[in-house]
Structure formats: C-alpha cells, structure tokens
Design brief:
The complex is a heterodimer of chains A (about 450) and B (about 260).
Chain A (H helix, E strand, L loop, with lengths): L8 H8 L17 H13 L52 E6 L2 E6 L1 H5 L3 E4 H7 L1 H7 L10 H9 L2 E7 L9 E6 L6 E10 L4 E9 L7 E11 L4 E9 L4 E11 L4 E8 L4 E10 L5 E10 L4 E10 L5 E10 L4 E10 L6 E11 L5 E5 L2 E3 L4 E11 L2 H8 L5 H17 L5 H16 L1
Chain B lengths: L2 E11 L2 E12 L3 E5 L6 H9 L5 E9 L2 E2 L5 H7 L1 E4 L11 H16 L8 H14 L17 H15 L3 E5 L7 H14 L5 E6 L12 E6 L2 E6 L1 H10 L2 H12 L1
Parallel strand pairs in B: 3-8, 3-9, 6-7, 7-8
Antiparallel strand pairs in B: 1-2, 1-4, 4-5, 9-10
Helix pairs in contact in B: 3-5, 5-6
The chains are: A alpha/beta (about 450), B alpha/beta (about 260).
C-alpha cells in the first residue's frame, strides 16, 4: 500500500520566507546607551520580518535575505579587510574638511578642527560620544527616529556600534564642511550605523556622509538610522551618498525634524547595493520651516533600490520641494513611493514632489507612486511622476552631428539628470554623480 | 573636390517605397534646390542621406568623396562632412547648446586623432561667439538647452549655427524656411550664404520658392513621386512660383499612367 503523499505546501512557504536574524541580546554593545539599546532590542524582538503584504514592503522582496548568516564585526575587524579607498576621503564640498570621521567594521577614526571644538561643536563617533557626551547623547537619541518605526530601525538602534554625533550649538555657523565615511567591507557581516545630527537654533552646517564598500562575492548587510534635528532658523545642508557593493542589503530609516524658520537642503545619491529599502521623512514641524529633498539614483544589473519618502507639513507656511531622478539599466528596478501629508491647520503650505525615471533597457523597471494626503484647505501641493525611455530621435539627432552612439547616450542621460545637478551646490558631489553616470553607462 | 553622388536610390519606410530611383550629383561649391509638392519624398531623401534608421535603402548608391555612405553610421557620415539642417530639430533637455557643440567638435577631433585632448575652452568660446554674432544671436543662447522651448526661428538659427561650427562639405537644408517670418528667413539665409563658397555644396529642400530669393541656386530640381522629374537653372523655380505644380503633375503622372 502506498503511503499518503506528504503535505508540503506549508513547508515550501516557510522555506521561501526570509530567515530570521541570529543576533541575541548579547550582541548589544556596552556603553552609555545601554538602556536605550535594551529598549530598542525589546522593540526589535516584537517585529517579524517584513513581507510583501506589508504596504511599505509590497515592492521589495526580502525572501532571499540570508538574515541568519550575518554576524557583527569583531573589534578591529577592519584590520583584515580591504582598506578604505583614498578618493572616499577627499573633500566633496569646498577645499577642505572641518572634520572627518571614518567608520570601519569594529573601529573608527575621528578628526575635528580644534577651532570648532573650541566653539562647542561636537563631531565624533558614537562610541566616543557614549563615553564623553553620554548625557547629551541620551537626551538626543531616539527623539526623531524611534525603534518602533520598523524592524531595521529597532535593530540599528539596538546594535549600532558605529555612528556619528554631530552637535552644533546655538547660533554657531560652521563654515567648513564636515564629512563622514562609513566603509563596510567583508561578507556575512552586518554593519549598523546611527547618525544623530542636532543643529541648534540659529546654527548652520554642511555635512556629507557617505556609505560604501567594495563589490564582493556573498552577502552583507547594513541597517542605518539617520536622525536630524534642525532648530529654529537653523540651516543644514546634508548630502548622503550610497555606493555599497553589489552584495549588500541596505536598509535605512531617516527623518529630519525642522523647527520654525529652519531649513534643510537634503541631497541623496544612490548607486550601490544589491537591494536598498530607504525611508526618508521630512517633518516640517514649525511655522515657516522649509525642506528640499533631491535624489539621484542609477541602477544596473539586478539592483533593486526602493526609496520611500514622506513630506509632512505639520505647521502653517511650510515649504517642501522634492525631486528624485533615476536612470535604470539591465534588469534593475527602482521604486519611489512618496507622500505629501498636510496636517489639519497647516495652512499656506506649499508642497511639491516629482519623480522622473529614465529606463535605458527593456528589462529594467521603475515604479513611481506619488501621493497626497491633505487635511488643510488653503494649501498648494503639486506632484508628478514619469517613467520614460531613451528615445531614438534625440540619439539620431546627436549622431547626425558626429557624436558616436555611446557619447550621444551619455549626453541624453546627463541632460536628464541636469535638473538634479542644478540643485546641488557642491562641485565635488556633482562630479561624483557625473562619474557614476559614466561608470554605469560603460559597465 | 568633394562630390555627393546619389545613384538610382530606392528607399522604403515600413515596406512602403517612397524614393523610386532618384539620381543626383552635387559638387562642392554648387547650390542645388529640390522642390516638389508635399508627400513626394523630399524629407525622406534628407533623412536617408543622414542615415536615419527608419529609412531602408533597397536599391541604389550614395557615394561621397568616393566612399559608400550607406556603410556609415550617421555620426560617421557627419564626421565625413555631411550635414543635415533638420526640418524639425529635436529638443535635448538638460544639454546646453555650448556643451552639445563642444561634444560634437571634440568627437571630430578624437576621430581624427584618438589622443586629442579636445578643443581648448577659450578657443571654443571665441569661435562660438563669432558664429553667434554672424547669426545675430544673443550670447546667452549658448547656455540654453538645445532646442528645448526654442521658437521656430530660434531652432532654425540653431541649425545654421551648428552648420557654421561643424563646417561640413555638403549641407542639406530640409525645409529650413518653414515656420520662419521674413526677418528670420533673411538672417538664416545670410548665414547660409556666408558659409557657401567653393568648399561647400548645398542641397536646399523646399516647398516654396521664397527661400530661393535669398539663397540663389545654381540648379533646381523638381521632385515628384520619389523621383527627380525636371532639372534646370534658377528660372525653373520662378516658373514653379508662377505656374504651381499642376503642370508637373499633369506631365508626369499621365505619362506614368500611360
């Protein structure tokens, strides 16, 4: 007699779901944030792995994330790993840095102009901050991005041994830009980072943060938090660049909280990673607060980049202006999902969002999902989303002037990105994007 | 001497034959005009000479300076010295006139010498200003996105500016007069005349005679149904102006049907 066939459906489903992380509470670093981390860990244990029935994760699939393989780099792990390339340490804005931090697997290097130290500016890595600025750090941490915001936010909040604390005291104008690099080489490693940027009332600063790693065979991951506070009439220019290796699963929760009359100019550049899921929220919390978000992305191969943006107008007379532009090659995919929210009473709000995509190959795909939720009646909100292809006629026109096919394509793509370049006041950042366009097109 | 020789050219778009055995020879230093009613294949000839991928040459030859043009990509044709002023110039958003022209000029230099470092920026700017002055263009034009939001007159002037900068040996002007008011027509024509000379052969494609009041052709050809049916001197254009195309149609369409 034949045995009854086994019912395997349940098991198949379980196999195709993402594995869980194997981190334990023992993975929590000791130090000044001990209590905060313990709470975050507690929040983490309550989240299950996101699946595509969760609205925010509908278009980004984590089933192949080998979560259980990832380990936290040991102290000093960077010594046996590829070193950070020189070009990442060069200034992208202006002639020289006011300070630079290099975050490495299991270590960091910090350098800050003594003149800025004397003016009360704090720009240091998170471990040093835990030792030397524990009280301040505990007051600021978790006020803008909370562990409850998501599984990866909770994880990074609990486990991030790497990170930056940037604190600019009231009315201090930092003239020279600050720069940090998160260098995450190695496979089967989980890199965590936590950036805390606190610009007090009337202060101003330019800060560039870059996350990168070489391409390696295998898997690695990064989960990061960026929490930003821009005080009353304060000014922050924040540039973040992402060129993770093709093997990196990259997650980040970012939010900027802008007070009355404050202003943030926020620039994103994303060309790396195997998969990225990024949440970037702009909270315009005080009257007259302004925020501009400019995004550049270029994917190729099988890359998958998912940017989820939120422009929250929580007070009257607030202005937001978002433009994300991306080009896609190969079988890559991008997702941009944006929302402008206007709270009740946030009158005279001016919100703008636009996402433009240029799909260079038939098998690449861009999803663009704008959204508005307006609960005030005297506002101006506009949005637009486009997905276009490289047209034949412009290429023929350029070729008819003696420009070879490859250069003609590059010109059209550069032209497509020009509106983003126009929004970037830093030559070095523009050059980096131009280089990325060249590299991606010739790849 | 550069010579463009078109021999028995047959061209189809999506299996529909448009050019049906067209022959024409243009020498450097000569100005030819092709006139003809709409839909007779004039623009097809222009696009085919430049190598537009939608136009399939099914028979015949195009020889330029002894070289078979049909083997060349559009960019190679351009670098060989062929220029097409488009009837409908294409907008390239985000690419300035100056950046575009510099890229085009440097492509020429690099094709000639792979080691070339490109035209020095000052030399380029000086050249561009001279050409813009010739065409009575504001220098701010160089910083605008190519054909993006240009008026009809600005587009045509930009075409002639490109021609002036790229210095072709054979220039095809496809309905360059369309959409121009009389002042713009004069400026564009003066530009073409300034460039004309022993080193340039010109093929003017036009529906109307009025452009030929400004650019004096040595030869005028009448095109009908994919062929050149009449050739003559400048007076042929005047004859067309007075008589229209009906006599041509009667003469040749009846013969074709007979």
């Amino acid at each position: 007699m034949q045995e009854k066939p086994k019912v395997t459906v349940t098991r198949t489903r379980r196999d195709s779901a993402a594995k869980e992380f194997s981190f334990t509470a023992d993975s929590i670093p000791a130090g000044g944030l001990k209590d905060v981390r313990a709470k975050a860990w507690n929040a983490f244990t309550k989240f299950s792995m996101p699946i595509n029935t969760d609205e925010a994760w509908r278009r980004t699939d984590l089933r192949f994330l080998p979560a259980s393989d990832f380990k936290i780099p040991q102290e000093g792990a960077f010594e046996d790993l590829p070193v950070v390339p020189e070009y990442l340490l060069k200034p992208l804005t202006g002639e020289q840095h006011g300070g630079q931090i290099t975050l490495l697997p299991g270590g960091s290097r910090v350098d800050l102009d003594p003149a800025l130290v004397a003016r009360g500016v704090i720009f240091t890595d998170i471990r040093t901050a835990e030792r030397e600025h524990s009280e301040l750090l505990n007051r600021l941490v978790g006020t803008v991005v909370k562990p409850e915001d998501g599984k990866f936010a909770a994880l990074a909040s609990a486990l991030a041994g790497n990170g930056v604390l940037l604190y600019v005291p009231k009315n201090v104008k930092v003239e020279t830009p600050l720069h940090s690099v998160l260098w995450g080489p190695g496979v089967d490693l989980a890199h965590f980072s936590h950036l805390i940027v606190y610009v007090e009332d009337g202060a101003s600063v330019t800060y560039v943060h870059e996350a990168a790693s070489p391409n390696e065979t295998g898997h690695a991951m990064h989960a990061g938090i960026v929490e930003i506070h821009v005080g009353k009439d304060a000014n922050l220019r924040f540039v973040e660049l992402q060129s993770w290796g093709r093997h990196v699963w990259n997650f980040s929760h970012e939010r900027a909280h802008v007070e009355r009359g404050g202003n943030i100019d926020w620039i994103f550049g994303a060309v790396g990673s195997r998969l990225t899921k990024n949440f970037s929220d702009l909270d315009l919390a005080g009257e007259g607060a302004q925020g501009r978000m400019s995004g550049f992305y270029f994917t190729d191969g099988t890359q998958h980049l998912d940017h989820d943006t939120q422009q929250n107008h929580l007070a009257p007379h607030t202005t937001s202006d978002l433009l994300f532009k991306g080009a896609l090659k190969g079988k890559s995919r991008s997702v941009w999902q944006g929302m402008i929210y206007v709270a009740p009473g946030a009158q005279k709000t001016d919100g703008y969002q636009a996402n433009r995509n240029l799909v260079l190959d038939d098998q690449a795909r861009a999803d663009s999902i704008p959204g508005l939720e307006i609960l005030a009646d005297d506002v101006r909100c506009t949005h637009g989303a486009t997905v276009g292809k490289l047209e034949k006629e412009p290429l023929f026109y350029l070729k008819s002037r003696g420009i070879p096919q490859a250069d003609a394509e590059r010109l059209v793509v550069e032209g497509f990105f020009d509106p983003i370049m126009q929004r970037i006041p830093f030559e070095g950042v523009r050059e980096r994007f131009q280089q990325a366009i060249q590299d991606k097109l010739s790849a | 001497m550069s010579q463009l020789e078109i021999k028995n050219l047959h061209v189809s778009i999506e299996d529909k034959e448009i050019l049906k055995g067209l022959s024409l020879t243009i020498n450097q230093g000569e100005i030819h005009a092709i006139m003809g009613p709409n839909g007779t294949g004039k623009s097809t000839l222009a696009y085919t000479l430049m190598g537009h991928p939608n136009y399939k040459v099914t028979e015949g030859e195009i020889i330029f300076k002894g070289q078979n043009v049909l083997d060349l990509e559009p960019d190679e044709r351009s670098r060989a010295g062929i220029f097409l002023a488009f009837q409908y110039p294409v907008a390239i958003p985000g690419v300035t006139v100056a950046n575009f022209l510099r890229t085009a000029l440097n492509a020429r230099r690099r094709a000639a010498n792979p080691e070339d470092k490109g035209m020095p920026i000052l030399e380029f700017r000086k050249m561009l200003k001279e050409k813009m002055d010739m065409l009575k263009m504001d220098h701010a034009f160089a910083g605008r996105y190519l054909n993006d939001g240009f008026s009809g007159g600005e587009k045509k002037r930009a075409e002639i500016l490109q021609m002036a900068a790229l210095r072709p040996e054979i220039a095809i002007l496809d309905e360059t007069d369309s959409g121009l008011d009389i002042d713009a027509l004069r400026i564009v024509s003066e530009g073409v005349n300034a460039l004309a000379g022993p080193d340039l052969g010109v093929l003017v494609i036009t529906h109307y005679q009025r452009l030929l009041n400004y650019i004096k052709p040595n030869f005028v050809h009448i095109m009908l149904d994919g062929r050149i049916v009449e050739s003559g001197g400048a007076d042929l254009a005047l004859h067309l102006e007075e008589q229209g195309y009906d006599w041509v149609r009667e003469k040749y369409e009846e013969t074709a049907e007979a």
